[in-house]
Design a protein that fits this description.
Blueprint lengths: L1 E8 L5 H17 L4 E8 L4 E8 L2 H18 L9 E6 L7
Antiparallel strand pairs: 1-3, 1-4, 2-3
Helix pairs in contact: 1-2
């Protein structure tokens, strides 16, 4: 199992609009990558937005990040306070309730 993680700082007060755009635009793009298993977005109190998607293979996680960064640059720029960063790697600890 591999995670693709994107993170950016949002402009204050943009959480609702970010959530709408991500749900309508990014989720379909990421979930279309082969090996897709899950997608989560976390909005922290300091306006940091972190998107985490789970895939079967490392190459799939990298492809998701490539697609996501291109989409973010095109669709979220006005809502962000800087550039998004992306990393991918193996999930080394995992548990479910």
């Amino acid at each position: 199992m591999y995670a693709a993680i994107r993170q950016a700082k949002a402009k204050s007060g943009s959480a609702e609009e970010l959530a709408r755009r991500i749900k309508d635009g990014a989720v379909p793009i990421i979930s279309d990558v082969d090996g897709f298993r899950a997608y989560y977005v976390v909005y922290a109190g300091d306006d940091t937005v972190t998107a985490i998607s789970i895939f079967d293979k490392f190459e799939q996680a990298e492809e998701a990040n490539r697609r996501a960064i291109a989409w973010i640059e095109k669709n979220l720029g006005p809502l962000l306070a800087g550039d998004a960063r992306a990393v991918a790697g193996p999930v080394i600890v995992h548990t479910l309730a």
